[in-house]
Amino acid sequence: MNPYILKAGLVRPPPGGEGCLPRRPSGNRRPRGCLAAIGKKMEALHTPVLLDAVMQYLAPYNGEGLMVDATLGEGGHAYAFLNRFPGLRLIGIDADRDIQARARERLREFEDRAQWRVGWSQDFFSAYPQDAERPDRILIDLGISLYHYEQSGRGFSFRKDEYLDMRIDTCRGTSVAELLARISERELADMLYQNGEERYSRRIARGIVRARSRGAIGSSAGLAAVVELSVPPKYRHGPTHPATRTFQALRIAVNGELIQLRALLENALGVLKAGGRMGVISFHSLEDRIVKNFFREQCRGFSALSGEPIGKDGPVPVMRLVNRKPVTPSAAEARNNPPSRSAKLRVAEKVLDGGYG
Ligand SMILES: C[S@@+](CC[C@H](N)C(=O)[O-])C[C@H]1O[C@@H](n2cnc3c(N)ncnc32)[C@H](O)[C@@H]1O
Known about the structure:
Number of helices: 15
Number of domains: 2
Radius of gyration: 21 Å
Strand order of the largest sheet: 3-2-1-4-5-7-6
Largest sheet: 7 strands, mixed
CATH superfamily of the largest domain: Vaccinia Virus protein VP39
Shape: globular
Number of strands: 7
CATH class of the largest domain: Alpha Beta
Bound molecules: S-adenosylmethionine
Strand content: 5-15%
Helix content: 25-40%
CATH topology of the largest domain: Rossmann fold
Distance between the termini: 23 Å
Structural class: alpha/beta
C-alpha cells in the first residue's frame, strides 16, 4: 500500500462497473480504450525490450514447460516465446485489463497454450495454489508500455492533454488528479524526491500547491506547465523534459510500484520451480537497486521472507546469478527503440526451494 496515499487519506473503494473506467469529472474525454479494438487487426505499439537477451537467458529447457509473463503488456515478449517454442505454455498477467485485451487479441493463435489473468502479479503469485504446476520461467518487464503513453488516454504523457489519472489498474485506487488535490506540500516534495529523484522536488511541490489554490490540476498538460514554471530556466531547457521525473514519481506513487516490487520478487521466487529462471527488466535506478539487492541476498542465502540465513549451519544460496552484470541495450537498440535506453535485464536461477512455504 502506498504510504503517501494513505497519509493523504485518499484510498477509496473501487468504482466497480464493467471495464472499470477511470475516475474523471464528467465532461472529460473518455480514453480511446483498446476494448474497442477487439475484433480488428491490432497494431502493437510497444517494441519488446532486450528481446534477444531475454530469449537467450529464459529459453525454456528442451523448448518446453510453463512460463509466467508477469507483465504481459501488449504481449511482445510472450509472442516471441510462444512463436519460437511450440512446446511452451504461458500464463500472461497484467493489472491493466485494457492492455491485456490487446495482448489476447494479438496472441489469439496461441490460445490453446496460453491462459490470461487480470490483476497484480504479486497477488497472483501469493495466491498460487500449492498443488498447481510451478513455472520454469518467470519474466517481469517492469513499468508501463508505450500503449499507456500513446493510447490509454490516462494522462501518462506530459506531451498530451488528458485527464490526469495514471492508474494501471483502473478498478482500484486513486488518480493522480485526486492525489494532487489533497496531498500536503511536504509529502508531495518527499514523494517527488523518493520516487523520482527530482532535484527540484521542493520547488515543484510549492508550485503545484500554489497552482492548486487557483484551481484543480486535472490534466497532464496542466501539470507539465506548472512544473515548467516551477523549475529554474536552465532545467527547463535541458536534454529531458523538466516534468519527466515528476510524472514518473506520481505514476509510481498511485500504482505503488516500488512498494510492491519487493513483494512481487519474493512471491514470484516462492512459486518458481527449483532449477527455474527469473528475468527482470527494470527502467530506472530505484527499481534496479531493489532487483539487484534482492538477487544478491538470494544468492548469499538469506530467506526472502524472514531475512534469516537459510540452513542450520549458515546461509545456503537460494539463487545463482545467470548474468553477473545486467544486460543493457546495444547502441542500435537504444537508437531504434528509445524507451529501451535505460533498460537493465537481470536473470537468476533458483537452485534451492528453501525458505519458502
Ligand atoms: C513494460 S510493459 C510490458 C511489455 C511487454 N513485455 C511487451 O513486450 O509487450 C509492463 C506491463 O506490465 C503491467 N504491470 C506493471 N506492473 C505490474 C504488476 N506488478 N502486475 C501486473 N501487471 C503489471 C503494465 O500494465 C504494463 O502493461
